[in-house]
Amino acid sequence: MAWSSGLERVPLIGATHAPAGKIVNLLLRLAIFAMSVDAIVNSGDARFAGKALAPRDVIISFGLAMLFPLFWKLRYQRRQWHEYPWWFDSLYLSMFAFDMAGNSFGLYNAYIGEFNDVTHTYGNGAVMIVLAGAFGFTTLEAMGITTMLHLVLQVEEYYGDKFLGTHNIVGMEGEYQQFIGGLVAVTVCGIIWYSSSGWREERAKRLRLPKDR
To answer: What CA dihedral angle connects 7, 179, 45 and 64, to 10 degrees?
Structure first.
């Protein structure tokens, strides 16, 4: 695709190991940490009330945010850190930052239901691209894994509200819309990724070369 080839020639986008990616990555990590502190310190605020965000944000800041570098190093033990895919890691982190910003800036309360749809849709697209681009999964594998992870998240939110007294879901219709939004995002991003042969050849780091990509 012509437009994807053009993007590949842009230095900051085309080079996943570009030094500028480190800066964006650091800024995202600082933002995630700052918003975690905000949720902990102001846990009684209307923005955070009833969502049990303090422990969740601690897990994100010190756990989930570190999964990408940990998984990357375990999967590619022979690669050096100067080969680290900063932009893919930043895309992964942006998913958490976007979600946390929705709480810190009161967007979930201001746009009940609608903002949930946006974050779930964005998150699924981001994860699908990260799995295919940074970890060498085929397009279909990345789409399938992303959908399964999203389903696990939906179940966790539902039963978290049911047994822990939180209110993270906005009704079963909202959950259905979010799941459909995730499927749409995965499908669209999967088609774009598969159609962009340059991105797949230049950026995907594979342990093996699949016969059917």
So the answer is: -60
* 212 domain residue, yes or no: no
Find the length of the chain. 213
Residue 17: pLDDT band (50, 70, 90) is: low
Of 92, 61, 59, 67, nearest to 160 (Cα)?
A: 59
As a whole number, mean pLDDT of residues 44-72 equals 88
Provide the mean pLDDT of the chain.
83
In the chain, the number of structural domains is: 1
In a domain, 35, yes or no: yes
Domain presence at residue 152: yes
136: its two tokens: 């060498």
The answer to whether residue 213 is domain-embedded is: no
Query: What global pTM score does this model have?
Result: 0.82
